[in-house]
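Format notes (please read before filing issues)

Several people have asked whether sequences and structure tokens are stored in separate files. They are not. Every record keeps both together, in the order shown below: the sequence lines, then the token lines. Line labels are part of the format and must not be stripped during preprocessing.
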Amino acid sequence: MLLRIALYGFSLLFLCTTAFMTVYLTMVQPGLERERIGRLTRAMDAAFESRQMPVVLAAQTRALHHEPFIRMSVYAADGSLLLTNEDPPLAPAHADEIARMRATNEAQPMNTEGRMMVGAYDGSAYLGYAVYVWRSPPFRTNATFLALAAMLGVLAIFSFVFARRLAAPLEELSDAVNAFGAGDTAARVRSTRNDELGDLARSFDGMADRVAGMLKTERELLANVSHELRTPIARMRTVLEIIEEGDAARARRGMVEIAEDLGELERLVADVLMAARLDLAAGRTPKDLPPLRTERIDAHSIAEQAVARLRVQDPKRTVVLTESTSKALVEADRALLRRAMDNLLDNARKYSPTTTAIDVSLREQDGQVAFEVADRGMGITESDRAQLFTPFFRGDKSRSRAAGGVGLGLVLTRRIVEAHQGTIEIRPRDGGGTVAAFQIPSAHSLSA
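Then the structure lines:
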């Protein structure tokens, strides 16, 4: 990659140099040639105009000496020298050279290398000619090309350095991607650059962290599901053995336990399937989310039913329901919205002592209906709070499924709330505990 980028830079330098030389040869040099001929013609015409004026010719000779690149001698038609800035003067032309020049009426090269001659005319009358040599200063020309070569050399060095600086992070990123693809989930770039390449490297690291987290949660799910399946299978085997032994009373008790286990497993499978379905819909437009069986319902009834269920499930628990509105209507799927409330209340029950109360509140404001569940339990650490909505995440992994679930409750709750175009948040409660709240648009705001 380094060589490819460097070759690309060198190719650009070559193209720039070629373009420069092409422009110089096709535009600059012809312009210089025309300017040179113009100066020669003006000097020659001035010489013939003032050939009877020695003082003027002397002044023109001095002026011509300031032309650094032109050496010229002007001769009249009779062969006399009129003007020169070369000492000794450039040798006059031969008769055959003069004849060839007059025949073509153009500047002609002479036999001597580098010398040219051009004729002077007054209308059709031949006045004479000028012999000249165009001398490009070697030092200046060499300095120009040396400066150009130095510039190209510096550009080449900087191109290589730039190519190295560009290729190095790309190679590091490529190595990390290949290592991650080969199964090394700890492979990261950890770039400190503050440019687009650094942003790309950090984006890869973030993606790798998320993928590694997903793989970890999948392994935890597999371990949790395997653990949950082991217990009912063992009980079924035990009950079958009891049935074979003929103990009907013990068999009936075992069947009751198996029925409870199957109910829990059925809910586990339903949670996993719903989480997968809602996860596939995440990030899409609302119309792509799973279809809802919406109806206009009283939010008060949802909160009351969820509280009543919790009171039956945990009769020793104090649950306080507070409403700041008499009748808040929502367009919602009753079963899913009830499920979201049940999940929040279950979490509050599982993660707070039985002796503490759970506060449930319902209010309507700014076109939103807000449900809030607050407990006085163990609270949430900052590290756990960032992962609460990660599928299969459990803050306290030592808990059994009956106490802590498999980590799908909040995931499903958030997906349900988002399907109703709402938002959810989990925050610490002042004085200890946790507040879980979500809000969805009221029916009035949707119809407005």
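For reference, the curators noted about this record: DSSP finds twelve helices and twelve strands in the chain. Confidence is low (pLDDT under 50) at residues 283-289, 398-402.
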